[in-house]
């Protein structure tokens, strides 16, 4: 049956994807179809979705983050007259069970792209007098929630891009997102926070994309303050995280302010493990594979929170030999690290996911750098041969990438640095001053 699916006007590219992931999680993806209501743009909040049953529609809506509501659509039109005609022609046997005197009901008037005054809302409700409501009105806890939703067209100078044309929808609410969980989990009330802690809305969206549910094991290889795993634990998953920074996973800001306390704050089951591990040097014993149902993460990005890998520059360049930390210094020792490019980090992550995800498991990767959320599903087996071929391809990519930066290429022929070239006479002191202050610390 076709339902009206109304989305929040947020994260537009991921709204249908979230519903599809949840439909697949509930085993009904093959029967899902989409349509747009008349005169609506794909960015409009109003979409029509074909789902096998009302129970499925309710379960998807209640679990989602971006679905405002899924409705049994009784009628729609570009004017109140057209709406009336459409509602009157909707089959009686579908309407009457919800209009009996035993049921209580409420009509909510909502709008998108325009404000409707209280008076106008009352007028809209009165204009529905042709619907034979027999039950009592209950504004607090009605059995049936009816919604009249109206959009204005963009000609009304409402500042919106042309995503909607005037349309009025009337329907019975089947289910809606539990957005209350967002204020509960919002970062400003989180006990342990870091500069790159993941926003709750995106973390919950990622958990939905990963089809997290009780009994699943979810891993975040860049766990930081644990925000992504908190969302996964909320949906009942067992969680496990790792970070190269031992201070993040072991210490936090003290015994009551760390990754563990973020779980305790919400009464969630604690992670099964938090590891100090480098994504570049995976800690798994040889032969161990296919243990995670989902890997959800937010890899390091930018200069401030850029990736690091174990070893230190001198060690990686062979200037110093590998060393063993003396036993008495082990607890306080912070191993040295070197820069870890995004390309290498993503390559390692794909390798980790290919090896450690179960078949059909999902890798959810948020790149705040390019503001995209990627969802990948494991569909083929991981073999040493496949891994070797991928490493060669990655190496080729790295070499070509370096070639592009060599002298004589388009970059160096067309562009020059903003700062003037240092001349022969420039002394070493002024040379030092020109260097960015953070050099050596972060790059
Ligand atoms: C963007 S932050 C993740 C933030 C996290 N999602 C949160 O909500 O707090 C990236 C994290 O990756 C960690 N990291 C950087 N390089 C790493 C590596 N090679 N292996 C594992 N973790 C690494 C950083 O210490 C940082 O905590």
Automatic annotation (TrEMBL):
CDD domains: AdoMet_MTases (cd02440). It comes from the Eukaryota. One of its GO terms (cellular component) is cytoplasm. Transmembrane segments: none annotated. Signal peptide: none annotated. One of its GO terms (biological process) is methylation. Keywords: Cytoplasm, Methyltransferase, RNA-binding, S-adenosyl-L-methionine, Transferase, tRNA processing, tRNA-binding. Residues 2-179 form the tRNA (guanine(10)-N(2))-methyltransferase TRMT11 N-terminal domain. Residues 190-313 form the Ribosomal RNA large subunit methyltransferase K/L-like methyltransferase domain. It is found in: Cytoplasm. One of its GO terms (molecular function) is tRNA binding. Its main location: cytoplasm. The keyword Acetylation does not apply. The keyword NAD does not apply. Its EC number is 2.1.1.214. InterPro entries: DNA_methylase_N6_adenine_CS, RlmKL-like_Mtase, SAM-dependent_MTases_sf, TRMT11, TRMT11_N. Belongs to the class I-like SAM-binding methyltransferase superfamily. TRM11 methyltransferase family. This is tRNA (guanine(10)-N(2))-methyltransferase.
């Amino acid at each position: 049956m076709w339902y009206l699916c109304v989305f929040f006007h947020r994260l537009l590219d991921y709204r249908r994807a979230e519903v599809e992931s949840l439909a697949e999680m509930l085993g009904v993806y093959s029967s899902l179809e989409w349509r747009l209501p008349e005169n609506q743009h794909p960015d409009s909040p109003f979409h029509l979705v074909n789902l096998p049953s009302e129970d499925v529609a309710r379960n998807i809506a209640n679990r989602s983050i971006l679905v405002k509501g899924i409705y049994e659509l009784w009628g729609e039109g570009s004017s109140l007259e057209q709406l009336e005609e459409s509602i009157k022609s909707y089959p009686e046997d579908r309407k009457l069970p919800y209009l009996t005197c035993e049921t209580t009901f409420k009509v909510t008037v909502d709008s998108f792209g325009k404000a409707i005054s209280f008076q106008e809302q009352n007028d809209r409700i009165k204009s529905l007098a042709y619907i034979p409501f027999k039950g009592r009105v209950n504004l607090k806890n009605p059995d049936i929630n009816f919604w009249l939703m109206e959009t204005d067209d963009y000609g009304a100078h409402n500042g919106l891009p042309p995503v909607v044309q005037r349309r009025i929808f009337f329907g019975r609410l089947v289910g809606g997102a539990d957005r209350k969980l967002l204020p509960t989990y919002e970062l400003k009330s989180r006990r342990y926070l870091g500069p790159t802690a993941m926003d709750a809305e995106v973390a919950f969206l990622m958990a939905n994309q990963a089809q997290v549910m009780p009994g699943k094991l979810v891993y975040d290889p860049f766990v930081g303050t644990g925000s992504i795993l908190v969302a996964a634990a909320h949906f009942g998953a067992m969680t496990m995280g790792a970070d190269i920074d031992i201070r993040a996973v072991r210490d936090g800001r003290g015994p009551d302010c760390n990754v563990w306390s973020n779980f305790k704050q919400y009464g969630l089951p604690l992670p099964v493990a938090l590891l100090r591990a480098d994504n570049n040097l995976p800690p798994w014993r040889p032969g161990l594979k296919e243990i995670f149902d989902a890997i959800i993460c937010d890899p390091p990005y930018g200069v401030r929170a850029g990736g690091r890998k174990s070893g230190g520059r001198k060690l990686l360049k062979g200037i110093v030999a590998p060393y063993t930390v003396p036993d008495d210094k082990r607890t306080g020792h912070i191993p040295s690290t070197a820069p870890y490019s995004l390309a290498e980090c993503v390559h390692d992550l794909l390798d980790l996911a290919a090896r450690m995800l179960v078949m059909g498991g999902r890798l959810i990767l948020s790149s705040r750098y390019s503001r995209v959320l990627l969802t990948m599903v494991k569909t083929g087996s991981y073999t040493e041969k496949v891994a070797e071929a991928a490493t060669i391809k990655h190496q080729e990519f790295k070499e070509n990438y370096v070639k592009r930066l060599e002298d004589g290429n388009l970059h160096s022929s067309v562009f020059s640095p903003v700062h003037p070239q240092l001349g022969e006479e420039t002394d070493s002191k002024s040379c030092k001053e020109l260097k960015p202050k953070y050099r050596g610390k972060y790059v």
